[in-house]
Specification:
Helix content is 28%, strand content 22%. The chain has 584 residues and is an alpha/beta fold. It binds guanosine-5'-triphosphate, sulfopyruvate and manganese (II) ion (MN).
Length: 584
C-alpha cells in the first residue's frame, strides 16, 4: 500500500505528465543538483564565490515580480464564506478552470515532490506541508524558507496529515495565472507564477491563508506578524509581535540594531513575517515562527538600516531581481554604496538610471534565519515565546501618531480592524494608494474577515494574559513631504515605551484614539529630531480623524450583519470621544 503522499504524487503525475519525478530529501547534494539545473535553465547566475560564497542571483520573468492579489482565490462552497475582501470561485469552477491548464503542464520537465515543515522540528505547533512543483528555484527557496525533506518526512510518516500544494509555472503567462485555495480540503493550487508569495506555497498560501482557516477552527492564531524579543538593561527579554502590511517594515523592526544599545536595550529576532500562536499553559499567547529563513525586500536594506541582515546575506543566499556588478556581487538601491560602473540591472541589461532602478522595487533576498547575528536563542523553542504586546502599523503619511496604546482588548481589535496603509511594490498594482488592510491580513485571510474579527474577539476572551495592543506609524510626513521619524534602529525608542506600558510604567496622555506618549515619556536623548517634529508625531488631529471615521464605517458596511457588533460599538465610542473632546 502506498502512503497518502505517494498516492497524491502519483495522481498529480498522471495529470501533469512530467518526464521525471524526484522526491526531495533536502540534502546538500540534492541542493547542488537543483542549482545546476537552475544555472542550466539560464536565469540563475553564480555570484562571486570569494565575497558571496554559495550565493546566486535569479532573474524572474519581468511579468512575474510580485504577488498578484487579483488572481488569488478562496474557493469555498459559498461566496459569503470567502467574504467581501477575497476573490471567490466555487471549488468546482476552480477545478474546471485549472485542470486543463495542469493537464500535461510538466511535459519535458521534472516534477519535484517537496515535503516541508512549517515551524521548529520538535514544536507541537508545527505542521507539515508538501509542495509539488516544476520549478527548481522554488525547491531551492523552500529549502531555505522551511525545514525541508527529512524532518518533514519523519514527522509525517505514512499519515495524511499534510497540506498539499500543487504548483506549476506553466508558461509564466499572467493570462494563465491563478492562486487557488480550497478550504474544504485544505489544498492549494498555484499556476503561472514563479514569484515568492505566489509560488513558495508554505509561506502565504499555507502559513497564512490555509493556517488562518485551521486556526479559527482549532482556537489558535496565524498572523502576518514579526516576532521579536526586547532585552532590557536587567537582561529580561519581553516578546512582541507586530503586524505591518507587506513592505512596511517587519523585517527591519525584527532585525534592528537598537539605538539604545548603550543603555542596555537590545532586539532579538524570532521571526520577520509570520507568527503562529497558541494559548500556553501560563495563559499567555505562545508564538512560533513557522519559517526557517527570511524572504526580505532588498531595496532600502543597507549597513545603516539593517546591518544584521547585511551580515547574514553574504553566504548561502538566493537573490531575486537585484542588480549585478562587474565584480559579480548583488547591488540594489539603498545599499549605501555607490552604483558601480558597468552594472547590469535586474533584467540583465546594462544599467541606465533613465530606464528605472537597478533592482526591481520588490527584489528580494532569501537567507537562512540562523545566519542572522540577531537571531534569538529562543527562535526554535518548541513551546514558542510568550507575547506581551501586539503592535499594528502601516504607512500613513498623516493621521496615525508615532505610537498609541488601545484602551483594552476589544478596542485593540478595533484598532487592528481599522488599519490602513499605502500600497507597496510587494503586490502588483498601484503603489502609494491608501487602502484598508485589517491586521495586515487583507491579502492573506483565508475566510470572511468578519468572522476573522470575531475570532480575534474570542481569542481575547479565552486568553487569560492576552497581549496589550499598540499601533505605530514610522511613515508620518511633515509639510515638506519628508518622513518626520528617522525609523529603523531609532524605533527601539518606541519599543521601550511599549515595554514600559506593558510593565505599568510609561508616561502617557489619554486621547480619543487611545494612550499617546507624552514627550517626556519617550526616551529621546541623542536623537536628531526637533521638538516641533516630535509634537507633530504625537499629535491627534480631529480634522484628520473625522474622514477616517467615515471611511472605516463604510469599510465595515461591506460585511453587513456578519460584522461583530463590538466593532460598531467601538466605532461609536471613538466618535463620541472625539465629540466630547470638543474642537481641536
Ligand atoms: P514583507 O516581507 O513584504 O512582508 O515586508 P516587511 O514588512 O518585512 O518590510 P521590510 O522590513 O522589508 O521593509 C520594506 C521597506 O520599508 C524597505 O525598503 C525598508 O527600507 C523600509 N522601512 C523599513 N523600516 C522602516 C522605517 O522604520 N522607516 C522608514 N522610513 N522606512 C522603513
Ligand atoms: C509579502 O508580500 O508580504 C511578503 C513577500 O512577505 S511574499 O512572500 O511574496 O508574500
Ligand atoms: Mn509578508
Amino acid at each position: 500500500m502506498s502512503s497518502p503522499l505517494e498516492q497524491w504524487a502519483e495522481q498529480t503525475a498522471r495529470l501533469t505528465k512530467p518526464d521525471h519525478v524526484v522526491f526531495c530529501d533536502g540534502s546538500e547534494q540534492e541542493n547542488q543538483r537543483m542549482i545546476e539545473e537552475m544555472l542550466r535553465q539560464g536565469h540563475t547566475f553564480e555570484l562571486n564565490p570569494k565575497t558571496y560564497p554559495n550565493c546566486y542571483l535569479h532573474r524572474s520573468n519581468p511579468n512575474d515580480v510580485a504577488r498578484t492579489e487579483q488572481v488569488t482565490f478562496i474557493c469555498s462552497q459559498k461566496k459569503e464564506d470567502a467574504g467581501p475582501t477575497n476573490n471567490w470561485m466555487t471549488p468546482k469552477d476552480a477545478r474546471e478552470k485549472l485542470t486543463p491548464l495542469l493537464d500535461g503542464a510538466m511535459r519535458g520537465r521534472t516534477m519535484y515532490v517537496v515535503p516541508y515543515m512549517m515551524g521548529p522540528v520538535k514544536s507541537p505547533i508545527s505542521k507539515v506541508g508538501v509542495e509539488i512543483t516544476d520549478s527548481p528555484y522554488v525547491v531551492a527557496s523552500m529549502r531555505i524558507m522551511s525545514r525541508m525533506g527529512k524532518p518533514a518526512m519523519e514527522r509525517l510518516g505514512n499519515s495524511a496529515e499534510f497540506v498539499p500544494g500543487l504548483h506549476s509555472l506553466l508558461d509564466v503567462n499572467p493570462e494563465r495565472r491563478y492562486i487557488a485555495h480550497f478550504p474544504d480540503e485544505k489544498l492549494i493550487w498555484s499556476v503561472g507564477s514563479g514569484y515568492g508569495g505566489n509560488a513558495l506555497l508554505g509561506k502565504k498560501c499555507f502559513a497564512l491563508r490555509i493556517a488562518s482557516m485551521m486556526a479559527r477552527e482549532q482556537g489558535w492564531m496565524a498572523e502576518h506578524m514579526l516576532i521579536l524579543g526586547l532585552e532590557s538593561p536587567e537582561g529580561k527579554v519581553t516578546y512582541m509581535a507586530a503586524a505591518f502590511p507587506s513592505a512596511c517594515g517587519k523585517t527591519n523592526l525584527a532585525m534592528m540594531v537598537s539605538a539604545l544599545e548603550s543603555q542596555g536595550y537590545r532586539v532579538w529576532t524570532v521571526g520577520d513575517d509570520i507568527a503562529w500562536m497558541k494559548i500556553g499553559a501560563d495563559g499567555m499567547l505562545r508564538a512560533i515562527n513557522p519559517e526557517a529563513g527570511f524572504f526580505g525586500v532588498a531595496p532600502g536594506t543597507g549597513k545603516h538600516t539593517n546591518p544584521n541582515v547585511m551580515t547574514a546575506l553574504t553566504s548561502n543566499t538566493l537573490f531575486t531581481n537585484v542588480g549585478l556588478t562587474p565584480n559579480r556581487e548583488p547591488w540594489w538601491e539603498g545599499m549605501e554604496s555607490e552604483a558601480p560602473a558597468g552594472m547590469l540591472d535586474w533584467r540583465g541589461n546594462p544599467f541606465d538610471p533613465a530606464q528605472g532602478p537597478a533592482a526591481q522595487p520588490n527584489s528580494r533576498y532569501t537567507v537562512p534565519a540562523h545566519q542572522a547575528p540577531c537571531i534569538s536563542p529562543k527562535w526554535e523553542d518548541p513551546e514558542g515565546v510568550p507575547i506581551s504586546a501586539f503592535i499594528f502599523g502601516g504607512r500613513r503619511a498623516r493621521l496615525a501618531p508615532l505610537v498609541y496604546q488601545s484602551f483594552d482588548w476589544q478596542h485593540g481589535v478595533f484598532v487592528g480592524a481599522t488599519m490602513a496603509s499605502e500600497t507597496t511594490a510587494a503586490a502588483t498594482g498601484k503603489v502609494g494608494v491608501t487602502r484598508r488592510d485589517p491586521m495586515a491580513m487583507l491579502p492573506f485571510c483565508g475566510y470572511n474577515m468578519a468572522d476573522y474579527f470575531q475570532h480575534w474577539l474570542d481569542m481575547g476572551r479565552k486568553t487569560p494574559r492576552a497581549p496589550k495592543v499598540f499601533h505605530v506609524n514610522w511613515f508620518r510626513r511633515g509639510t515638506d513631504g519628508k518622513f518626520l521619524w528617522p525609523g529603523y534602529g531609532e524605533n527601539v525608542r518606541v519599543l521601550k515605551w511599549i515595554l514600559d506600558r506593558v510593565e505599568g510604567r510609561g508616561e502617557a496622555r489619554e486621547t480619543p484614539i487611545g494612550y499617546v506618549p507624552t514627550r517626556s515619556g519617550l526616551t529621546l536623548d541623542g536623537l536628531a529630531v526637533t521638538p516641533a517634529a516630535v509634537d507633530e508625531l504625537l499629535s491627534v488631529h480631529r480634522a484628520d480623524w473625522e474622514p477616517e471615521l467615515d471611511d472605516t464605517k463604510q469599510f465595515f458596511g461591506k460585511f453587513g450583519d456578519r460584522l461583530p457588533k463590538e466593532l460598531l460599538e467601538e466605532h461609536s465610542k471613538l466618535a463620541r470621544r472625539f465629540a466630547d473632546a470638543g474642537p481641536a
